[in-house]
Structure formats: C-alpha cells, structure tokens
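Anyone up for a design puzzle?
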C-alpha cells in the first residue's frame, strides 16, 4: 500500500502536484493512495501546465489493462476448438455455449463496472479489475488439462471470462473523466482500439503458445496471462490516479433511459459491436467445424481487421454522417453473410474467409459510425447552453447503455449458429437470419435518421 497522498494544484489554473496529506473520499471516508482533489481539464492553463501529462500517464496503463480484459474475454473462443484434441467430448451445441457465455456475462457486468469507477476510484478499480482476471485465467489453466471435467464446470469457468468484458466499461468511464471534451474522442478511441485488438491478439497467440514438442499444452492458454495481469496491476498501482471529483451521473442514465433514441441506437449497436464480438467468438469454432483441414491460426484475422476498421468508420462518419455509414455497413454485412452461405454450399474456404473478413470490416466500421451517431442525435434541438448540457449528459448515458446492450450480440450470434446447426444440421439458416436482421437494421437507420421526411433528417446525423 502506498503512503497516503493527494494530488492538488498549487493555485486555480495551475498544474496538479503531489502532497503528503491525507484526503477524503466523497461521503467523508478517509482515502489512501493517490487521489487528485482538483481536476479541471477544460481549464487550458491547468491542462497545458501538467494536466495533459497526468492524463496520458493514466491512459496507457488503462489501455494495457483493457487489452488484457478483452483478451481474457475472448480466450475461450480460441480454446474451445482445441478441447477435442486434448480429450474433451463435447457436442456442437455445448461448444457454442462455451463461446457464448463469456459475452453474456461481460455484457451484464458493463453497467455495474461503469459505476465502480466513481465509487472506488479509477486507479483502485483498474487494479482490482485487472487482478480479478487471475480467476478466469487460472481456472482455465486448471480445467483444460482435465478432460473428465463436467460440462457445467466448464460453463462456470467460461462465465468467469466475462469479467474481462466488464473492463471496457470501467476503463472508458475512467478515461473520460481525465480528458477535456475536445480530446475525449481521440483518447477514448485509443482506449477502445487497444481493447478490441486484445481479441485478435489472443486468437493469434494461443495457437502458438500451446504447441509443445509433446503435443498440445492447452493450460498455457490460461497461464500465459498471469504475469501480464500482474504487470497490468503493478502499472496501474504505480502510474495511475484516482479523481475525487469523478461522480456517477445517475441522472444521465435516467435521461437516456427515457429517450427512445437510446433504445434505437442500442438495437443498431447489437448489429455492429455485437456482431463483431459474436463473430470474433464464433469464428475459430466455425473454421474448425467447417474446414478442419485449415490451420487454426488464421482465425485471428477476423478480429484484427474488425478492430482496425473501427476508427476508419468513425473517420468516414465525420465526413459523411454516422447514419449513412451505418446503413452502408449493414448493407455490406448482409452481403458478407450471404457470401458465407454460398461459400458453405461450395465448401470453398477462400470464399468463406473472404466473406467473413468483409463481415468483420463492416462490423468494425459500423461500430465506429454508430458510436459517432450518439452525440449528434442527442444534440438535435439543443438550442440553448442548458439544453446542450442536458443533451451531453443524456448522450453519455446512452453510450453506457448501448455499450452494454450491444455486447449481448456476442451471446446471440454463437447461440444462433448453435440452434441453426441443431435444427437444420447447417449454419446456413443462421446466416440468412443475420442477413434479414441487418437489412431490418439498415432500414430502421434510414427511416429514423436519413429518410427525407424523418424528423432527424435535416440534422445530417
């Protein structure tokens, strides 16, 4: 435990500096560790005089911790296809359950994780949430080396991986407190991209790490995280700070809940972010089941191109409007899913891989574009400073709600594949269902935000 300290500015408008005084948390509880009592990033003097440096110091450990969170969250996606090789006997339905349940848990945890930052402090919660990843990592290493493990135990351990899914929400909430409005987009974009790339990284690394001269050592898929998790916790402990002024804005969530656009955008976000997480989780299992002759380490390509496409979607949305780019993304996603159907009929691996890479690119671009729509939608009609302030709060609440609901797509897509295989003996009905859903989502976006007679159309959302 570090000595009690507080970081405060010497005078209003100056940079924060460390002192050795004990401070208190909101509510009067004594605080230990590094707490900043005054933080005003909108003050240009404060920001240039040291605030920006401290914000960056907090950003990079946050990115690393979130990267590991996503990697642990996605770990079962690449482990499940290897379980039969080490002696597990599982049905296709059981394998898709193991892929889907981490997303279900991760999505559920996103809202409480968001409120954990103002309750416990961003630095403190980053340490705690990083160390919590030791549970799924060590449990994974234990069970995969014991083929006699019952399925319900595997489900519990897979559910623990959902802890990594909650990290995104708390990390984004924490970093948003550190940056001024004009720089939040870039900082949050870096933070989000670092997390998304964790999915691709684990799918690339695990097939390399588990191979030994004696065969597969699947427990390494969990053990490899342990030193990295400890490093993330140490970096957060040494480099990050808590902000006393970071408070949970329940009114923002309340305003968002009562706004119909929150639920429309959440529906669209299931199709963009939810599809990215869902396909990323299912893709290794799909490749193994449909094309067993293919080397598994190609599976990481989907998550990689999807992650890299996310900022591109935001850039395109800045130029053409988030709604237009979102509609285009849904159209491309529908085409990609249809292409995957024809690839399955022809058992053509090259076409199947190409179709899914197109799908992943479209989900990533749509993810960035839909996210970009949120502040634009809520600013419509904000003609006074007071209304603009309320709109910003409602938009912040919408981001939290949509992020949580969208992540449920990571559960729905693998389960869709499982049900399709169980009822029809093929993945094709699920893919056609996804095509239909993407078309409905695209039409919804057009009808609400870009149709000439729509109330939102003049705003160019």
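Challenge accepted. My sequence:
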């Amino acid at each position: 435990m570090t000595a009690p300290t507080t970081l405060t500015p010497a005078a209003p408008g100056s940079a924060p500096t460390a002192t050795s005084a004990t401070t208190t948390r909101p509510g009067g509880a004594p605080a230990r560790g590094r707490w900043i009592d005054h933080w005003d990033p909108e003050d240009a003097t404060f920001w240039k005089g040291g605030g920006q440096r401290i914000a960056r110091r907090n950003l990079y450990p946050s990115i690393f911790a979130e990267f590991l969170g996503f990697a642990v969250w996605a770990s079962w996606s690449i482990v499940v296809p290897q379980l039969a090789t080490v002696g597990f006997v599982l049905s296709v339905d059981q394998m898709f359950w193991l892929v889907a349940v981490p997303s279900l848990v991760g999505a559920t945890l996103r809202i409480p994780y968001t409120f954990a930052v103002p309750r416990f402090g961003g630095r403190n919660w980053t340490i705690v949430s990083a160390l919590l990843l030791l549970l799924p990592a060590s449990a994974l290493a234990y069970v995969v080396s014991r083929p006699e493990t019952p399925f319900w135990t595997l489900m519990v351990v897979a559910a623990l991986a959902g802890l990594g899914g909650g990290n995104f929400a708390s990390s984004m909430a924490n970093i948003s407190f550190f940056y001024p409005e004009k720089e939040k987009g870039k900082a949050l974009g870096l933070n989000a991209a670092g997390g998304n790339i964790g999915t691709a990284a684990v799918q690339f690394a695990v097939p390399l790490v588990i191979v030994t001269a004696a065969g597969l050592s699947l427990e390494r898929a969990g053990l490899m995280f342990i030193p990295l998790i400890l490093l993330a916790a140490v970096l957060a402990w040494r480099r990050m700070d808590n902000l006393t002024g970071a408070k949970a804005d329940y009114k923002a969530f309340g305003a968002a809940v009562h706004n119909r656009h929150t639920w429309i955008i959440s529906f669209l976000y299931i199709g963009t972010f939810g599809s990215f997480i869902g396909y990323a989780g299912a893709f290794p299992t799909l490749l193994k089941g449909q094309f067993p002759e293919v080397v598994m380490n190609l599976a990481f390509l989907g998550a990689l191109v999807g992650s890299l496409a996310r900022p591109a979607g935001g850039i395109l949305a800045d130029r053409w409007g988030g709604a237009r780019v979102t509609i285009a993304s849904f159209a491309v996603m529908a085409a990609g899913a249809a292409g995957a159907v024809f690839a399955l009929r022809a058992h053509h691996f090259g076409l199947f891989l190409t179709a899914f890479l197109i799908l992943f690119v479209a989900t990533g671009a749509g993810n960035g574009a839909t996210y970009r729509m949120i502040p634009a939608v809520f600013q419509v009609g904000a003609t006074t400073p007071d209304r603009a302030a309320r709109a910003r709060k409602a938009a912040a609440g919408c981001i939290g709600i949509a992020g949580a609901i969208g992540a449920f797509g990571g559960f729905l897509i693998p389960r869709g594949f499982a049900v399709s295989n169980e009822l029809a003996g093929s993945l094709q009905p699920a893919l056609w269902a996804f095509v239909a859903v993407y078309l409905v989502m695209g039409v919804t976006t057009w009808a609400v935000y870009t149709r000439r007679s729509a109330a939102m159309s003049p705003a160019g959302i």
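A detail worth pointing out: The mean pLDDT is 88.
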